[in-house]
Specification:
The protein is built from ten helices and ten strands. By secondary structure, the protein is of the alpha+beta class. It folds into four domains: about 60 residues, Arc Repressor Mutant, subunit A (Orthogonal Bundle), CATH 1.10.10.10; about 40 residues, no CATH class; about 80 residues, Roll (SH3 type barrels); about 70 residues, no CATH class. The chain has a five-stranded antiparallel β-sheet with strand order 6-5-4-3-7. Strands 9-8-10 form a three-stranded antiparallel β-sheet, covered by helices on one side. Strands 1-2 form a two-stranded antiparallel ribbon. InterPro entries: CBASS_pafABC_assoc_protein, DeoR_HTH, HTH_11, PafC-like, WH-like_DNA-bd_sf, WH_DNA-bd_sf, WYL_dom.
Amino acid sequence: MKFDRMLSIVNILLNNEKITANDLAGKLEVSKRTIFRDIETLNMAGIPIVTYPGIGGGIGILDGYKLDKSILSTDDMKNIVMGLKILQSFENKDIIERLITRISPTNEDIALMESNVVIDLSTWYSDGYTQTMMDDCKKAILRNNRIRIEYHSKNKYSKRTIEPYKLIFKYTDWYLYAFCTDQQDFRLFKINRISSYKYLEEIFMPMPTKDISMDFSVKENDLGETKDSPSQEIVLEYKAVHKDLLMDKIGARNFTEDGKFIIFYSANTNWVVDLIISLQDKVKVIKPQFIISEVENTIKKMQEQYKR
C-alpha cells in the first residue's frame, strides 16, 4: 500500500506544478503526517520534492527535474481509464472511481470520459450468493488465503482445498485458476460448477504459475471427431420472420443473399446440435446428414422424457 501511495504522489506531482499537502492527503485518503513521511522517503530515494511556503505555496518537484509532465501519454491514460470503467460493472464502483481520479489527477476530460467501448460484465452471476463468492475469491487471491470448495466436474463431485491465483472471464463464463492441493497441480474451476465454498484463514505461499490453457475445444465427441477434425459445412433453412432473432444467435455474415439459408462451419458436433435444438422450429437442417440424424435422436430422447 505504501509503495502504491508513493507512486501516486509522484504521478500527481508530475502532473501538477504545485499541490497542497491537504489536497494530496484528501486525494489519497491519508493524513497530512503520512504525506510528509512519504515525501521524506521519496527525497531519500533521490526524487527532489520541495515545499513552497506561504499563500499559493504547496508541494512540487524541483524545476528542471521533470522531463515530461506525465509518465503516461494521453492515449495511454485513456486506455487505462477505459479498462477501469469496464471493471466498474462487477467491481466496487467507488473504489474504481477513486483510482481513476488518482491516475488522472489534472485531466478531468480523461477521468470523466465516456468510453467508446462498453462491456458490462454485471449480467453474469448477478445473484447475491455468487457475487459474494466472486468477492471472496478476489479477496483470497489478494491475501493468499485458501478456499474449500464443493465442485461438480463433468465426471464427478468432489471436495477440494484450493489456492486461488486468478479470476478469468472467457466466452460467457467466469473461471477460477487455482492450485488444487488434492491433485497437486493447477486447475481451472468453472465458477457456476462450485456449489458451495468456505473462505479459510489458512495462508499459502504463492508459487510460479503455469501457462493457462484456455482451449476449451472438445477433445472427442460422440462421433469420434477430435478438436483437430476439419470443420463441416452446416446449412440451415429458415423463414424470414425469424431472421432478426437468428442474426443475434448466429451472426449476419452467415446468411445467404437469397434470404433462405444460413451457412457456417464447425468441427464441434455437440455444439451444433445444441444450437439447433435451442432454435426450436425456427431452422431446419439441410446438411450434413449426420447432423440431421443427431438432431432427430436428440428430439426423440426429449420426447421420451415426457412420456408417462
